[in-house]
Amino acid sequence: MIEGVDPQPKASHFIAGRYVEDTAGAAIPVIYPHTGATIATVYEATPAILEQAIASARAAQPAWAAMSGTERGRILRRAADMIRERNRELSILESCDTGKPLSETLYVDATSGADALEYFGGLAATVTGEHIPLGQDWVYTRREPLGLCVGIGAWNYPTQIACWKGAPALAMGNAMVFKPSETTPLCALKVAEILHEAGLPAGLYNVIQGTGTVGAPLVGDRRVDKVSLTGSVPTGRKVYAAAADGMKHVTMELGGKSPLLIFDDADLDNAVGGAILGNFYSSGQVCSNGTRVFVQKGIKEAFLNRLKERLDSAVIGDPLDEATTFGPMVSEAQMKIVLGYLEKGAAEGARLVTGGARMDRDGFYIAPTVFADVTDDMTIAREEIFGPVMAVLDFETEEEAIARANDTEFGLAAGVFTSDLARAHRVVDAFEAGTCYINTYNDAPVEAPFGGVKMSGVGRENSKEAIHHYSQVKSVYVRMGDVEAPF
Ligand code: NDP
């Protein structure tokens, strides 16, 4: 028990409306990042578990699709209410799974999952087709579900990702099999449990555990119609290719190395606040982070001084203490990856402003780190680090900053801080990114489309856009008169 919450789930998988165990699969220990202790164990899905999940989803989907959008939406909205009622328990579980502090999880994780269920629950009944007149004849279109959607999650937002994929899929009449990251297997099980308590018919939202060795056969199964992945670019490449073989629909929410441009005329504290949100929230483990912070020369030293002052006031430690504002890395493996980048930053000549090392305590803590005088060719300016490491680069002109900001294979997000609104819009017009911010950073409300361009992915999550990624259009031609044939 941690703070009254037992992190050990009733069983490893949730299939056909109930928890299912099969200890024949490899054991996956769930490590609490604050201490390094094992707090739960789940077992990787065996081929028999995978088969049960796919078969039950396929069997349940047609009746679900036949229900009205209002009926489906009512269940999703009930689940949203239940998640909000259980927010504290779910937030503690999210903190145990990921190490993110309660000061974040209480406000961002289960609540944003509930937002998605409420939003898509509300939209479900509003989705209609088109009537296209053709003289006396006409065409009408129907927006139909895809069938069986597979969701595969990263480890940074396990509850949110389970809901961001599940809510639009279910709203449109699909079934889902969801595989969380093996690093954070706990939260998606709770989402499944609550959805079914809210009245979701058995089989429509199944969760199975495992690594990529379970994800790959899921993606490859011919009964699967769509794959939605949140993960890194290398995994995205593999999953997209495997899905293409079966001509499956995909949503790819992948990594980034997003630019954040701060002009001399920006409000200093707002710009520093945006840079903190875009680099240190969730200990830097956020895909859309603005990790290349381009600061115009006139404001550079003031920016760095204020940034250091504010970072010094971070409360680092026990994620379950609500006063804590900065927690550990999700895993020892991720911590080691980030430590490798810290070494590269120093070795390639970046100036360490603050942090730069593992902290002298239990768990997987890395101090919030800022490198200044970073140049475009340095490894820490080119590769996604996925940790609390900000790279500050200098710039002089708007044109130069835009060209350098876009000089990356990624295109997930980009931000600009300036008090000149004409410039702000000019800059976002030039950004090669799917999600842009003006005088703010890292907001992700369910009402707005979220996703990347270039190597950062295809498709969009959230908003009305997501409806198109979880459904397909059927055109129906209707002739009122006789059919004229040439012979
Ligand atoms: P990974 O790419 O390592 O893994 C993502 C998921 O894919 C995991 O569940 C993983 O399983 C699974 N997987 C791995 N290989 C395969 C395969 N061949 N077939 C099917 N599934 C597979 O990402 P991380 O979990 O390390 O997450 C970090 C990455 O996610 C970062 O690059 C980050 O930018 C990105 N991300 C993107 C977001 C977005 O919305 N754009 C949001 C959040 C994160 P397992 O790990 O258990 O082996």
UniProtKB/TrEMBL annotation:
SUPFAM superfamilies linked to this entry: ALDH-like
Keyword NAD listed: yes
Pfam families: Aldedh
GO MF annotation, one: metal ion binding
UniProt record, GO biological process: glycine betaine biosynthetic process from choline
Keywords assigned by UniProt, alphabetized: Metal-binding, NAD, Oxidation, Oxidoreductase, Potassium
InterPro entries with a match to the protein in the record: Ald_DH/histidinol_DH, Ald_DH_C, Ald_DH_CS_CYS, Ald_DH_CS_GLU, Ald_DH_N, Aldehyde_DH_dom, BADH
Domain named Aldehyde dehydrogenase: residues: 20-476
Enzyme Commission code: 1.2.1.8
Location of the active site: 253
Coiled coil: none
Stated family: Belongs to the aldehyde dehydrogenase family.
Protein name (record): Betaine-aldehyde dehydrogenase
Organism: Pseudaestuariivita atlantica
